[in-house]
Amino acid sequence: MKHIFFVEDDLSLINGLSFAIKKQGYELTIARTSMEAEQLWENGNYDLVILDVTLPDGSGFDLCRKIRASSKVPIMFLTAADEETDIIMGLDIGGDDYMTKPFKLAVFLSRVNALLRRSENFNQTQADTELQSNGIRVWLLKQEVTKNGTPLDLTAGEYKLLCLFMENPNIVLSPEQILSKLWDCDEKFIDNNSLTVYIRRLRTKIEDTPSNPQKIVTVRRMGYKWNTTD
């Protein structure tokens, strides 16, 4: 049974979503404050984390940073903080998805299911091989990445995006193709702006000059490709 960690202080929302999440067959642990969340995180083992941004004693952004320091578990933000800067912040610090309130329950559950399915399928299909090009090396079983021998600290979303590119060298991938692979769903509610943030964030870690990328190149009006130089 998949175990979801839900950090939210709105009791009415907790009650409504708890029923819906459990009806999907998932186990659920709830925290209503940052302090409680940190304690439960240390003592638990979770397959997905859902975070509100504004909590009585802290920020979901800070919790995300702490979780990312030790785990690649998928993280979804579910929050009323709908400014573009908030969304970019959430994705930049390691969030895998960002959903704003108010929202439709069916869409929320679809995105939860997609994140869990994407994570499970990705882990199940790992082979005991390596990916290597452009000075980047990926050990698939260990989910470790190096650039010219130096370890890279990638979030789960960045890692999966990098693997997708490296598994399809010199092939132009449209935003729709990339999103369908990353989110494992065909729904149109995934925002292409999220992909732009992921690409930019990954480039800052793997490119020698992120402002002039040579590995992940943009193909105008078509998409992106992994441009091999090896």
Structure overview:
With 230 residues, this protein is an alpha/beta fold. It has 2 domains: 3-123, 3-Layer(aba) Sandwich (Rossmann fold), CATH 3.40.50; 127-226, Winged helix-like DNA-binding domain superfamily/Winged helix DNA-binding domain (Arc Repressor Mutant, subunit A, Orthogonal Bundle), CATH 1.10.10. It has helices at 11-23, 34-43, 60-68, 84-92, 105-124, 156-166, 175-183, 192-206; strands at residues 3-7, 27-31, 48-51, 54-55, 58-59, 75-79, 97-100, 130-133, 136-139, 144-147, 150-151, 216-219, 223-226. Strands 2-1-3-6-7 form a 5-stranded parallel beta sheet, with helices on both faces. β6, α4 and β7 (97-100) form a beta-alpha-beta unit. The termini are far apart. The relative contact order is 0.11. Residues 185-189 have low confidence and may be disordered.
Topology (SSEs and partners):
Layout: E1 3-7, H1 11-23, E2 27-31, H2 34-43, E3 48-51, E4 54-55, E5 58-59, H3 60-68, E6 75-79, H4 84-92, E7 97-100, H5 105-124, E8 130-133, E9 136-139, E10 144-147, E11 150-151, H6 156-166, H7 175-183, H8 192-206, E12 216-219, E13 223-226
Parallel strand pairs: 1-2, 1-3, 3-6, 6-7
Antiparallel strand pairs: 4-5, 8-9, 9-10, 10-11, 12-13
